């Protein structure tokens, strides 16, 4: 099967319908499937896949974060490669900069990371005697899956039943569609049960990652060691599909100040499309990347002011009645 064989819409996505069931106009990353093969044995299926030849026209890729910010770079989808820009504002950063005794700056990059669940992605699809398409799958959200499966297969919602199998590890990875739509397509086409199990190599390439981020932070403190301001920019690489990336990267900005009381904050976040692998939910949801930056800033500030890094943290940590970056009272 190819994109021409999809009976419904060739789009899906947890939050935004920007992923293709099978590539049509162009391939946006190494994760994009182009064709599906079903066979009676695994060996026959693998042999058939090896015989498929695809002719590609090469396009300029958008890979580093800096490329995604370049207005001259080719768009991954229609329009800008900046999908979302969010802001956190608290107090008066400019005034706090003037009043700070110590200021440190840092640029931080975090890499993509795979969840490596013990069980790779897998699904079994079959039509029951009532004509309902049943899909048994290792998933974290069966009803959200169904909302993406039914339109692609041109089925009414009550003609699709998703059965959540023991997931063998998810960690956010199995928030997203993996094998559901592909096995469903093949089951409808063959009128036979169809099983798909990802190899570890396929799992590493084809499914969501923790977001790589570029973070630029400037942090200040008074002479007695009290934090005065945070000024930061966070750029998140979500690959060619949003998945839950816009929420992950927005949350990184909200948590850029960490567990510390900072009266003056300016943080901007940017969710960027690239041709890298798709990034999505992973435990910590943007907070771990931000921690790399804010904890490094704490160490540098403590050193600059001649204060123990532990004492510096205890002095500045959020306590009852103090407020977070968004004004939430502890």
Describe what you observe in this structure.
The termini are far apart. The strands form two sheets. The chain has a five-stranded mixed sheet with strand order 1-9-8-7-2, sandwiched between helices. It has a four-stranded mixed sheet with strand order 5-4-3-6, covered by helices on one side. Helix 4 packs across helix 5 (180-190) and helix 7 runs parallel beside helix 8. It contains nine helices and nine strands. Strand 8 (227-237), helix 7 (245-254) and strand 9 (264-272) form a beta-alpha-beta unit. The protein is elongated. With 330 residues, the protein is of the alpha+beta class. 40% of the residues are buried. It has helices at 42-51, 65-69, 93-99, 142-153, 180-190, 200-206, 245-254, 287-305, 309-316; strands at 82-90, 102-110, 122-127, 133-137, 160-164, 194-197, 213-221, 227-237, 264-272.
Topology:
Layout: H1 42-51, H2 65-69, E1 82-90, H3 93-99, E2 102-110, E3 122-127, E4 133-137, H4 142-153, E5 160-164, H5 180-190, E6 194-197, H6 200-206, E7 213-221, E8 227-237, H7 245-254, E9 264-272, H8 287-305, H9 309-316
Parallel strand pairs: 4-5, 8-9
Antiparallel strand pairs: 1-9, 2-7, 3-4, 3-6, 7-8
